[in-house]
Structure formats: structure tokens, C-alpha cells
Automatic annotation (TrEMBL):
Domain called CN hydrolase: residue spans: 2-274
CDD domains: nitrilases_CHs
PANTHER family tied to this protein: CN HYDROLASE DOMAIN-CONTAINING PROTEIN, NITRILASE
GO molecular function (one): nitrilase activity
PROSITE patterns: CN_HYDROLASE, NITRIL_CHT_1
Stated name of the protein: Nitrilase
Lineage: Bacteria, Pseudomonadati, Pseudomonadota, Gammaproteobacteria, Chromatiales
Superkingdom of this protein's organism: Bacteria
Family: Belongs to the carbon-nitrogen hydrolase superfamily. Nitrilase family.
Length: 313
């Protein structure tokens, strides 16, 4: 049995370093309760850009540019030492950490942002970087599209884990590519919430025969910085829950074992038995005895791509 935790707490919106410091405090708290893996939500560092769902693509051009500038300034460059506090906390507590963030491209333009989830091992090293394959609707004004080089399941002390971000979980082939890598724990950092979304997460637990950790986004109007551009127009109701979270931990087969946690901060914990995943596939194993590879095949291009390459003669 392993103890896992999913954090449902607001970030310090548009402040990378303060959000990382908050994450370290939360790791300390979860470790004190015996957690071996801790999960944070989509774009936790420095916060999901919820305003994109309220801005007009043309009419609010100036506001969009001002907010994007702040996102660029507070995004994470994974080639830098900006995540060192998280790496050190993971090593200190022997934790596996899964954390969503705005990632700033380092290799080419140094100006494109990606919706990224980083998986950090208990040795404090980066195990995997998954960039969201397809940003959803107005998210395309913020993030570029990722490739499949991070569409991987990795071995950790708590089991084999993989991550899809928000509506990537509505992409059947993306899900299947994780199932086919022997996933034990399917991690879904997300901005979506509500009964329909939770129903999808429970379906995945049944379909894949694995544990599902739904890591929801909690945002209240009071979390928005006082100096946020167009704050009064975008968030006129000071008491509004912009997003209620709905974090949950779901067992193979679809049983809710923790949560959902709605409109409140907290850390959900659950003891999980990885062997339940294997047993759940006795009757339905969609990449094993219940598959038909003689009829259906799937090819995943897992290469990392750059827009240019240089050759020296």
C-alpha cells in the first residue's frame, strides 16, 4: 500500500517564486501525513489563466498582451534552477511530485509557453516533462501544442504513473497510449470540474482498470492579484468561485475513495493498492486480452521536434 495526496489549493497567481514556495510548504505538510506522492493541478505555477475564457480575442487585445507578458515573466524554464526548491523538497521527503506549470521554451524562440506537467522523482530529479498536446479553445492564445516525447508512463515507488492534462483525457488515442504502457495510476491535472467531468474520470478508471487522481483547479475571485489588468471587469463579484476544484481519487472500477472536494482548500489522501489495478483487468484489459491488434493498430510518434536543425559540414 502507498499513500498518495492531491493538493487542492490556490496558487499565488502570476507569481512563480511565491507559488513554488507555497508548493514546498504543501509538500512538507503532505509528507508529515505520510504521503509518498503529491499531485498539483494544471498550470499550478503561476496559476491557470482563467481570464482567457472571459476576454474577447480582438476587443481585449491590450489586456491580453499585458497579461501574457506577466505569464512569460513568471513561467518556468526547466533548463534553469527555478524549480530547485521543489527538487530539494522531493529529495528531502523522498516524494514523487507531479506538478503543472507554464513552461517557457528554452531551446528556440524562448517566447512560446507550454502547458506542462513535470514529474519529479524522490531523488529530486526530473523524471518526465509532458507538454499538453492540444490546448483547448482560448488556451491556444496562451500555449503552444506539445509533442508526444513526454507521453510516457514512468516507474515510481508508488507505481507506474502517467499524466494527461484536462481535455487530453477526451482524446481516446492519448488515453490508449498510456494504457498500453502498463499504467497503474492515471493522473489528470485539470481545469474542468463538475459531475460530467467526474463521470469521465470514473469511466477512465473502469476502462483502464487503474487508479485515477483527478487534480482540480481551485480559484476564487479573491485569488486574483489586486493589480490584475481589467480585474474589476473580469471579476466583478468578489465572492465568486471561479473554479471549485472537484479533486478526487478514484479506484480501479470507478469507486470514489476520496473527494470530490469542492469550493474549499485541502489535501486529499488515500491509501492505494497497486495490485487492484492488475486484478481489475482480469475481466477487461483493453490493451491485453480484450484488444484486437490484428484489426486495430496505433502508431505514436514520440519524437521531440524543433522547428530547425543545423548541420555542420
Amino acid at each position: 500500500m502507498s499513500k498518495v495526496a492531491v493538493v487542492q489549493k490556490s496558487p499565488v497567481v502570476l507569481n512563480r517564486d511565491a507559488t513554488i514556495a507555497r508548493a514546498v510548504d504543501l509538500l512538507d505538510q503532505a509528507a508529515s501525513q505520510g504521503a509518498e506522492m503529491v499531485v498539483f493541478t494544471e498550470a499550478f505555477i503561476p496559476g491557470y489563466p482563467a481570464w482567457i475564457w472571459r476576454l474577447r480575442p480582438g476587443g481585449d487585445w491590450g489586456t491580453t498582451e499585458a497579461l501574457h507578458k506577466r505569464l512569460l515573466e513568471n513561467a518556468v524554464d526547466l533548463e534553469s534552477n527555478q524549480l530547485d526548491p521543489l527538487y530539494q523538497a522531493a529529495r528531502k521527503h523522498q516524494l514523487t511530485v507531479v506538478c503543472g506549470m507554464h513552461e517557457r521554451d528554452h531551446g528556440c524562440s524562448r517566447a512560446t509557453l507550454y502547458n506542462t506537467v513535470a514529474t519529479i522523482g524522490p531523488d529530486g530529479l526530473l523524471m518526465n516533462r509532458h507538454r499538453k498536446l492540444m490546448p483547448t479553445n482560448p488556451e491556444r492564445m496562451v500555449w503552444g501544442a506539445g509533442d508526444a516525447s513526454g507521453l510516457r508512463v514512468v516507474d515510481t515507488p508508488v507505481g507506474r504513473i502517467g499524466t494527461l492534462i484536462c481535455w487530453e483525457s477526451y482524446m481516446p488515442l492519448s488515453r490508449y497510449s498510456l494504457y498500453a504502457q502498463g499504467i497503474d495510476i492515471y493522473i489528470a491535472p485539470t481545469y474542468d470540474s463538475g459531475e460530467d467531468w467526474l463521470g469521465s474520470m470514473r469511466h477512465i478508471a473502469r476502462e483502464a482498470g487503474c487508479w485515477v487522481i483527478n487534480s482540480g483547479t481551485l480559484l476564487h475571485a479573491s485569488d486574483m492579484p489586486d493589480d490584475l489588468e481589467a480585474r474589476a471587469t473580469l471579476y466583478p463579484d468578489a465572492d465568486e468561485w471561479i473554479n471549485g476544484g472537484d479533486s478526487a481519487i478514484i479506484a480501479p472500477g470507478g469507486e470514489l475513495v476520496a473527494g470530490p472536494l469542492r469550493n474549499e482548500e485541502g489535501i486529499l489522501y488515500a491509501e492505494i493498492d497497486i495490485e487492484r489495478a492488475a486484478m481489475a483487468r482480469r475481466t477487461l484489459d483493453v490493451v491485453g486480452h480484450y484488444s484486437r491488434p490484428d484489426i486495430f493498430t496505433l502508431l505514436v510518434n514520440a519524437n521531440a521536434y524543433a522547428p530547425i536543425s543545423f548541420s555542420e559540414q
